[in-house]
Every structure is written in C-alpha cells, then in structure tokens.
Amino acid sequence: MEYNNKSKTTYFYAIGLSYKKADAEIRGHFSLDEQGKQALYQQAKINGVESLIVISTCNRTEIYGFAEHPYQLIKLLCDNTKGTVEEFQNVAYIYKNTEAISHIFRVGCGLDSQILGDFEIISQLKVSAKSAKKEGLLNAYLERLVNAVIQASKRIKTETDISSGATSVSFASVQYILNNVSDISNKNILLFGTGKIGRNTCENLIKHTKNEHITLINRTKTKAEEVAGKFNVLVKDYANLQEEINASDILIVATGAQNPTVDKHLIQSKKPLLVLDLSIPKNVDSNVKDLSNITLIHLDDLSQITDETLEKRKGQVPYAETIIEEIKIEFNNWLETRKFAPTIKALKHKLNDFKIAELDSQRKKLVDFNEAQAELISNNIIQKITNHFAHHLKDDGISTIESLELIKKVFQLEEPSKNHV
C-alpha cells in the first residue's frame, strides 16, 4: 500500500471523525458542503496530493487518500472547515494501509453507520469517487478499492438481512414520530428541506403515517415541487415558512445549511410543536428550547432508538463480514499482481526487442520469409513466456521479491518505476 514517486513515498490513509466520538456540534465544525469540497480538492492538487476522496455526511467526515504523513490530509480538512487540529486530535481516527482498507469497507457496507445497516453511505461514496475522478484525483488504486466496496455493499444488501427494518436516519425520524405522537394521521407536518434526507423522510412519512397533511418548503421552490409531484403533497413558498411552522404540529428540518435556518423567533404559536433536526451542522438553533411548548430532537437522539429488527440486523453482521473478507482478498490479490506488473511489462518489452532483432536477421537470410506467420508465432511465444512468469509470481509458495530480482538480473531489465503495492 505504499507508493514511490521519485524521492517520496506515500501511504494510504483514512482520516476523519464520526458520531462515535464527535457529537453533532463538533461534526458540524468539520462538515463540508460542495463548495468546501471543491476548495479542498483544489488545495490538494496544489499540494501535490495524488489521489483522495472526501465524504461528509450527517454522521461523519472522512478523507481517504495518499500522503507521506496523515497530517497532510488533516490540514486539508481543517483548512477548509471550521474545525481545528486540536478538535480533530480529540475525537478523530487515523488508519493506515490495511487498516484504512478495512475501515472504508466497514463504512461503505453500513457496518460503521450510526444506525446499523444504513446503506445511504454507499451512494455518498459513489458520488465522492465520481467528483474526485472529475478533478483528476482518483488513481487506479483508489478507484479499484471504491469499486470493491460497492461490490461488497451490493452483495451484503442482497445476501443478508442487515438492511431489514429501520436502517436510515430518515426512517428513524418517522419511527420516532410514530412512537411518540398520537393520532399521527391528523397532524400537520411541515418538512423544511428537500435534499436526499428530506426526500427519503417524505417518502417514509407517506408510507408509514398515512398522513395527508404534509407540506414541503425549500429555499428553491422548484426542487420542492419535484418532490411534491412524486409524492402528491403540498408545496409552499419559502416566504411562508414562519406561517407554516406556526400551523404545524411537527416540523422536520433537513436543510443541510452551514448555519441554523430555524430559531425561536420563527415560532409564535403556543401549541405543542415537535421539532426534528436531521442536519449536520445543526440547522435548528438550540434557543428553541427556551420555548416551553417545543420538543427538540436531533439525529443523535434518533440513533438511540432501538426496535426488534436491530437485534436481527446485529445477527447478520458475521455474514456481512465474511462477504467483505472475500472481496478484500480479491482486492489484495490485485494489489499483489500490481507488485510485479511493471517487471512483467519490462520483460515483455525485452522479449519483443529480441523478436524484432531476430526477425530482422531472418528476413535478410530467407528469400521466402513469411512476415505475417513469423510475427504471429513469435508474439504467441512471448505471451506464453510472460504468462508463465506471471503464474510463477502469483504462487504463494515462492518469494515474489527474490523472483523479481532474479528475472530482472537474468534479462537485464531496467528497474521499473514502482507503483502502489
């Protein structure tokens, strides 16, 4: 898992923080919106970082990438968020090489999620990899690793029951409402924010509450209208936010803003109001707790909810881990192959040079020299020889390093440039 680029050697790291040690406020300090991610990518390129991907969700912010020292990645994160190095050191984790590989598998497969089995993270991983590739920051190693995690996630989702029942923040919020609000079908529900969590919450509300009094508001009304069209719910203008809040029994905030979008000054009604904040950073100002009629629930509270399906999902973890190990072995085999690929390539070039010289010699000696036939036969022989060496190097019973040195010595091969191993 190291990478030699002329005079510097870099290693694969996973650095970040999650709900496990960082509360919602601290996670908010390290949250990255799209603008922040773009700034981070640009700084990474300026600093000579070869490859990385960034994930920033309500539960975690992480960077997976190559660096000489993890501080290079930590600095990128702190320079482009409100978080400080001191805060990071208190709550963060740093994984290197094989541990970093194991971590990205667990995260991408929902085993490290705040709600076990939450598969929303895998779409975040896909989007992050796509963005990094667009910026020229996704090398072959990281792209192959992400694809392996996606493959593992798909298999776990189809081959185990780890995603049965409540698995996402959006579902957990609806489950909380169902468990704590009576006569739910007749309550007025306002959903403020129609990003991914907002859309999923809206879908779960309709599916599980049978409520026909759901209103959507989004800063960009057209986005709210798209969601409303899909679920046949009401849309109101952003200008009507205060009016709609005061007419509601339940307010769900999923705006994804960097600063609070709702505070106590928007709430004039004296009737009980349940407020669920599904955002990181928090989008509901804590001053709403000054109002006696308000019950404020944050997503960190929702993660504590357990139901009968949780134990069932926990029982599926060993099966999920078995699938991960199988795909990790495939990935590690690919890494091993990359160790000797440059030498095999150099060997093929050397044998090709022999071929060209020999064909040129025979061409001068033979009047009826068959160019096409000679080319075909010699190419087939070269392929068989290189395949034979490749199979030898894959043998677990031999020392790859010693064999590579012997091949290079015998065929007088130039030292190939090292790649990820």
UniProtKB/TrEMBL annotation:
Active site, renumbered: C58
Native source species: Gaetbulibacter jejuensis
Keyword NADP (UniProt): yes
Gene coding for it: hemA
Binding site for NADP(+): G193, T194, G195, K196, I197, G198
Oligomeric and partner information: Homodimer.
Name the record gives this protein: Glutamyl-tRNA reductase
Miscellaneous comment as given in the Swiss-Prot or TrEMBL entry: During catalysis, the active site Cys acts as a nucleophile attacking the alpha-carbonyl group of tRNA-bound glutamate with the formation of a thioester intermediate between enzyme and glutamate, and the concomitant release of tRNA(Glu). The thioester intermediate is finally reduced by direct hydride transfer from NADPH, to form the product GSA.
Binding, substrate: T57, C58, N59, R60, S113, D118, F119, E120, Q124
Domain comment quoted from the record: Possesses an unusual extended V-shaped dimeric structure with each monomer consisting of three distinct domains arranged along a curved 'spinal' alpha-helix. The N-terminal catalytic domain specifically recognizes the glutamate moiety of the substrate. The second domain is the NADPH-binding domain, and the third C-terminal domain is responsible for dimerization.
CDD domains for this protein: NAD_bind_Glutamyl_tRNA_reduct
Function: Catalyzes the NADPH-dependent reduction of glutamyl-tRNA(Glu) to glutamate 1-semialdehyde (GSA).
EC number: 1.2.1.70
InterPro entries: 4pyrrol_synth_GluRdtase (IPR000343), 4pyrrol_synth_GluRdtase_dimer (IPR015896), 4pyrrol_synth_GluRdtase_N (IPR015895), GluRdtase_CS (IPR018214), GluRdtase_dimer_dom_sf (IPR036453), GluRdtase_N_sf (IPR036343), NAD(P)-bd_dom_sf (IPR036291), Shikm_DH/Glu-tRNA_Rdtase (IPR006151)
Tetrapyrrole biosynthesis glutamyl-tRNA reductase dimerisation domain boundaries: 320-413
Domain Quinate/shikimate 5-dehydrogenase/glutamyl-tRNA reductase residue range list: 180-305
PANTHER family: GLUTAMYL-TRNA REDUCTASE (PTHR43013:SF1)
Pathway linked to the protein: Porphyrin-containing compound metabolism; protoporphyrin-IX biosynthesis; 5-aminolevulinate from L-glutamyl-tRNA(Glu): step 1/2
Site residues, Important for activity: H103
Keyword Nucleotide-binding tagged: no
UniProt record similarity statement: Belongs to the glutamyl-tRNA reductase family.
